[in-house]
Predict the 3D structure of the following.
Amino acid sequence: MSVMTQQQGDAALPPRPDNGAELLEVPDGWEAREVEQFLYREARLADENDYDGWEALWTDDAIYWVPVDGEGDHPRTTVSIIFDNRSRISTRMKQVKTGKRYAQAPPSNLRRIIGNVEFIGGRANAEGGVDLEISANVLAFESRPRGNTLWGGRTTYRLRRVDGQIRLAYKKVVLVDNEQAVPTLGFLI
Amino acid sequence: MTAIHPAGEIIESEFASVAVKLDHDGNAVRLRVEDLRTGRVRFLDALELESLVWLADGHLTQLLDPSHERWRG
Amino acid sequence: MTAVVPSPSDVVAEVQEGGSRYDRLIQPARVHGTLYTDPSIFAEELRKIWHRTWVFVGHESEVPQVNDYVRKQLADQDVVMTRDKEGEVHLLINRCAHRGLQVCDDKAGNSSSFRCPYHGWTYRNTGELLGYPYNKGYGGKKQLPLGMGKVARVASYQGFVFGSLAEEGPSLEEHLGAAKGEIDRLVGLSPEGKVSLDAGWLRHKTRSNWKFLAENETDGYHPQFVHGSIFGVTGSPIGELYSDNSTAVTRNLGDGHSENDLRPEFRGFAEPMRWFGTTPDRVPHYVAAMKEAHGDAADRVMIEGAPHVMIFPNLFIAEIQVFNIQPVAVGECVQYSTAVQFDGGHELNMRMVSQSIGSVGPAGMLLADDTEMYERNQRGVAMADPEWLDVRRGLHRESVDENGFTIGTATDETGMRGFWNHYKSLMEAED
């Protein structure tokens, strides 16, 4: 944690998004199959660079986080590969849709496997409900002119039902090799 | 780095790992230090700890020489 | 075609028979593609540049406490930056004097001494050999005149720590030259006159020769093209700073250093904190602290903003980000990047972390696109024809400023030419 953060006191720093709120029991009303189907759909939209479809999965209080150095330090005081709120997700999607986001123009060719899905618990959300927290392994194969890259990691998701639809409120991807230098990560991991 | 451990709070680096806690079994409180890599335990009383504080840096450095005690010969 | 653009025959110096290899490869208006692709040139760069000149390694704020240490990279050398019990910063080469093992494995820690895991040889965090197990095998204690390797010279400027593997050479201050003033400008934006680089580092593996990065950092010609996508969707005014209408200048600071000096633009607007994309009323504590620190000069400091300076060979200060570029091989390097943190500037610090995450690193909305260019550039220069890269932009309209520095317009390649001049002088030196 930075010296500056200590100077301004913990009050100014919001809780960590991953473990700042208490882990509750797995909330009722979630079936493994529908959850897995949602994860596979999210993965496919990302693989196929369906930016609008992928963006529509997110809630308004979304957090999309790819830390460095294992689980990462507090993302407000230390740098991460990605730490997007809903607005920055939108900016990221607008940029790539210009067709001149060269790191992703042409888009990567991608396929990923999602597996080892576990129900972890529940997290209270700002809307007064409890999000389902699950985690899963991801192994993604990326092909670009620079070469092929294999990305592996453990992803934590938080899901919420909004108007009968499953939506994504939180996604944290801890890359296996995030303590090393990694190449450009232009696609949606 | 600290963590909850039966032997106390852990102080560790890539070079050593010890657990420390206050021991109240004697007639006065002592510091119990356990080398978690070997299980060896040392109790340090108040006077011994005060002596450590006053130990000249050079003497402390001598203790860090691996052949000083542990790997003598 | 316009007649004022010099043709190669006007500006390419006649290369005399017997001129150095680098006379042929580096000319005033063009440089040869093999400079980026030839492994023998890379090996020579390691000897003559990376193992000789001052190289940025890290920042004192990464080892704030006595006995803190952190692993760093100096080109191909794995280096441990330590702070000893007297508070002095050292750069040790991470290699045991016994069998050559890597001594420290953790990325960071706190320890007065390091013990090699192989045979227990133990070193103080100054590199001095403190002892070894079973000393009779060496005739007793303290019998060996050995220690961990050390970076021969270590010096810091405003907390930025540099190392030189050469025993002798220009001092750090001589090496930094005019670039010192740019570091001073950055530090002057802290109300306490001090910056920290303690927000962690992103590590971006880049399949490109390191020189493409060094050249690009003050290339004001590329932003509107490479970064047009993000400028467009965010309505960023940055692109305008690098247009043909801009009053900003590209300055060759000498010694291989260069900057895009945006101050003329910001002076024109005369709005404090515009450089940061905000207004004084939104960061009142910072502005008050700056007025207390700088008095009447505070407005000028807050109007002119942070530097955009490339310090040869590997430190790039991009306003609120710091980059540390380290070569790995002729076609590969790593960009380490972090957010500047101003001591006493907490209203700005979290925002600088957030902006840095958005902009730099492997997924950054600016730097991932630069990196795509570096990598395509590396693939491009492997092609046979044309053999040369053109660096003549603005050569005919350069001028000399009031301090004697060569300047070009915001989009001119004045910085690159300064880089190559210095590079050539180092590469022509004796081995």
Summary: The helical segments of chain B are 46-54, 57-64.
